[in-house]
Batch of 3 targets.
Target 1
Amino acid sequence: MKIMIGSVALELHQGDITRLAVDAIVNAANSRLAGGGGVDGAIHRAGGPAIMAECRAIGSCPTGGAVITTAGRLSARWVIHAVGPVYRDGKRGEPELLEGAYRASLQLAGEHGAKSIAFPSISTGVYGYPIEKAAPIALAAVERHLQEPSSLERVVFVLFSAADYSVYERLLAGIAAS
C-alpha cells in the first residue's frame, strides 16, 4: 500500500527490512546497542561485523533516542539504531518515548540527506508494545515530520507479519481518506 503525503511516498511492505533498497534502515535496537533478536539480529547478520564495531564505538543510546552507523554489507547507506521503550502499562512515558525514537530517526535521516528510510514497527516485538497502540504513534510521528521541509522522498514501514501489516494498512487507509 502507498499514499502520498505532500510529495513524499509513504509505503507499507511485508517482509524482510534488510532486503529493501533504501538510504537508511531503522533498527529496533536496545540501549546498549548490543545486538539481539528479531529485526536487530537480522540487520546485524545481514550487515556484518562493521555495524557492531561502530555500535561498540558509540557505546549506548537512551530510550527514545537514535544513533546512526554505516550499513556494512546492506544495500542501504546507513543503519539508524532507534531505541524504543519496553511496554509496561502505557502510563510510564512509553508513548512519548516511542514517538521520540521515530522523531530522532527521522532527524538523523534528514541530517544525513537520506531520500528514503525504512522503519520496522519499533518496540512491538520482544519489548511487548501492543501494535494497535504503537502503529498510530509511528504513523503520526512520520506524518508530522513530513509537514516540514525534508530530504525524504520515500518512507517505508516494513512489517514482518500479515497481522501487523493489516494494522498499519487500516490506519494508513484512514490517513489517505482524511
Note: The mean pLDDT is 96.
Target 2
Amino acid sequence: MVFKRLFSRPAKPAPRILRAPHGQRFYAIGDIHGRLDLLEQLLGQIDSDHAARSPAEQHLILLGDLIDRGPESRRVIERVMELGQTRSNFRCLGGNHEDLLLRTLSGDAKSAAVFHRVGGRETLLSYGVTQEDYESSDYNGLCDLAKVHVPEAHAHFVAGLEDYVAAGDYLFVHAGISPGKPLTAQSSEAMRWIRREFTECDEPFEKMVIHGHTITEEVDERVNRIGIDTGAYATNRLTAIGLEGEERWFLSTLD
C-alpha cells in the first residue's frame, strides 16, 4: 500500500468547461489592419453561419487593430462606425495601432516614428495624404499631417474604443492580460500592448482569453487563451471565433 502511494500518479484535473452566456451567440473578429475587403467577406460568413444555426441573440466583437498596413484604414473605420449604428450587441476594442494613431494625433513625435514603422504610411495615405507630403515630412510633420487629415469624428471614435469585453467564461482583449493580476487590476497599456509575458504564460487566467495582436499561421489554441490574429493584411486570412454555450468554432476568409 505504501509502495502504491509513493509511485501512483495524481489524477489529472478534469478539463475546464467553458460557457458563453445562455441564449447568446458570440462572434469575435481578429486584427483587420485596413483590409475592408476581408472584413466584408467575413461579416457575410458570420451572418450566414448565424442564420444556419438555431435562434440565439447575436453578439459581434472586433478585437482591435482596425488600421495600418492594409490599404483601406479610413474605410474600415467608417464601416466599423456604421456597424456600431446598425448592429445591436456590437462592441469594438482598441488595439496598439489605434493607440499609436491617437498618440500621433496628440503630437507625440516618438509615437509617430513607431506609427511610421508599423504601417502608419498606409493609414495616412488612405486619409488623403499624398505620397510626396508623407515622404517630405519628419515625425513632427507626420503628427501635423494626421491632425489635418484624420476627421475629428474618427479620432473621437477611436478614442472611445474599449479595452475588453467579458462574457461568461470568456474575456475578449486585443493583446492579452498581465499574468497574476485580477481583471480589475489590468491596465489599458497591457491589454493593448502585452506580448511575450502573456503568450508564454501557461497558468490559467480568471477567464479564457480571446485575443489578437500576436500573429500565428493558424488559430493558436492554448489551455488559457485563444489567439485569432492570422495576419490578414499579408495572408488574406481574417479569422473569427464563434462561441455558444460550451461550443466554439472558427470562420476564416480562406475557408
Note: The chain is about 40% helix and 15% strand.
Target 3
Amino acid sequence: MNPPPADSPLSERELILTRIIDAPRERVFRAWTRHLPEWWGPHGMTTPVCEMELRPGGAFRTVMRAPDGAEYPTKGIFLEVEEPGRIVFTDAFEPGWAPAPEAFFTAITTLEEMPGGKTRCTTRALHWTAASRERHERMGFRQGWGESLDRLAACAMKL
C-alpha cells in the first residue's frame, strides 16, 4: 500500500517513517512479531511487558520503561497480521473489540522486498484528527519511532 499523496485529506492526519533494512522481510517480520521487547521504543528504553496475540482482534499491550523509571504503556488490538508483509494495530479498540475510551492512532507497518535481500519497512501512524497527529509529532514521533526502527533493523540483522 502506498502512502497517500501529500495533498490528500489523510496526509494532514498521518505520520510516515521508512527504513531500508539489510535483512530479508521474513526476518524483519520475525523480529517485529517474535522479538519486540528487544527493539520496541527509543534508545535506552526497555520493554518489560509485552503481550501480543497475532491475529485480528488479538491483544497488543506493551509497557516501555525509560532509564529514569518512567513507564509508557501501549494498549490496543491487532487489526491485521499478514505474514510476512503487513502488521496493523490500533488503540481505538481493546480486546473483545470494546471501544477504547480515547482513540489516538492506528499504526500500519508494511514490509516490502527489495533487491539484494533487503526490506523497505514503512510505518504509518494514522490519527483521527490533525491535532492528534500534531500532538504525536510534538511527543517525538520521528525520533522515537525512528530509533525504534533502527533497533528493529539491528534486531533483524542478527537473527
Note: Residues 4-9 have pLDDT under 50 and may be disordered.
